[in-house]
Give the backbone structure.
Amino acid sequence: MDGIIEIGPLRLLFAYGFLLLVLFFTRKQGIGKEKEIIISTIRMTLQLIIMGYILVYIFDQSNVLVTILIFVVMVTFAIRNIFSRVKTFMNKRLRRVVVISMLTGTVVTTFYFLLLVINLDPWYEPRYFIPIAGMVIGNSMTGIALGTERLLGEMKSRKQLVEGALMLGATPRDATMGITRDVFTSAIMPTINSMVGMGIIFLPGMMTGQILAGISPLVAIEYQIAIMLGILGAVSITLFMLTRLGYQTFFNKWSQLEDMEE
Amino acid sequence: MFQLINVAYKNIIQVDDLEIKQGEITCIVGESGSGKTTLLKLLNHLVDYKQGEIFYRGKELKGLDAVMHRRQVVLLPQTPVVFPGNIRDNLLVGLIYSDKEIVEGRILLDALKDVGLEKKLEEDADKLSGGEKQRLALARVLLMEPEVLLLDEPTSALDEDTETVITEYICSYLEKGNKTIIMVTHSRALAKKLGKMIVTVNNGKIISIEEGPANGWNN
């Protein structure tokens, strides 16, 4: 069998059978979430249809400015998402560090990946640039949101230890060394764990998509291996920046702990 | 050694004029919540005073490197801080933080003995009792041999007999030459016994500065 089987609008309707099934179960169980489920499904459908048309237009254009604009929009939304996901109060300096870390991690990794690993020409070819940037940005976003929440939590819960170290003449960096190590480890673990299960427990989305699109599984795994390493790189650069710069935002110029409350 | 002029920190403490001399024991007494601990934190430059000036050896604290200052003017808090690890790790951490030479095990055991702790260096520090933790934290700062020791109720978790022994040992630190001790205590009797100068704090204000009847440890 060559090429891809197109689903088409009519058979796509059959997929909505699953929605009916969910609605049936939730009603039967008295969960009372039918409205949310219907709204979420409509939102998902509309967002993807709009995105589909936008991508068709962008792919046809293949314009450097449009590609850069999309990248900026994706990073901006990701940063907004991080700020809304982190529930603990963040001061302005830490917010700035989150922005710098996200930009560094995603820009360095995306361009390294496209230019050296894929050897993309022209480098802004949206068919490659946008999905790869999306994966890099999405994973960095999850990593840094986890890391920031953890950093804030640990700085609060281990305040006495940090202050105790400062009293003995520790630099802020030494006083927070244990915390920054824990933050880095805990935030990178989900990425490492997902690598361990890959290929055995599940087939990753990008690889599945490529296989369905008729690409040889051997080519698909090449892409998957490369993108996973790219994601690992992006998350680690982002977290390195977060921990290396982030701890400083808790101290003033006399290496005193700043007030952590709003 | 220290001079405080019109220093205020939040609504906790206000010091109009205070001079603390080198080579002496100065005791700070007062009710709990009167601002004694905050005064020590100010001298350690652990908190930022928005008003006034604090001079250490003639130089304003805000113009000094705060980390280097804290390596010379070390603060021992009332609630002892125990770092993750064993007793050895906890004794060495002060020397490591302050970039000082690491000492060998025999010296660490002696330091423990001096504060009345007969423990193995490999024991988990977190398993010690409150009083033992307090003595471990004291041994840690004494190993650092700072110029000024800021002690916040260093014997509060000890029984009376141990308190006397440890207090006398702390005071003998002055004999190392040119060392200064500033000690917060709730016990006026202890302050009178040891302090060359006794500063009484009440409701965030210094209400009296007097010379100790014992005229200091050395006498």
Remarks:
- The CA atoms of residues 211 and 217 of chain A lie 6 Å apart.
- Chain A has two domains: 1-61, 63-250.
- Chain A touches chain B at residues 160-161, 163-171, 174-175, 178, 252, 254-256 (CB under 8 Å).
- The longest helix of chain A spans residues 126-157.
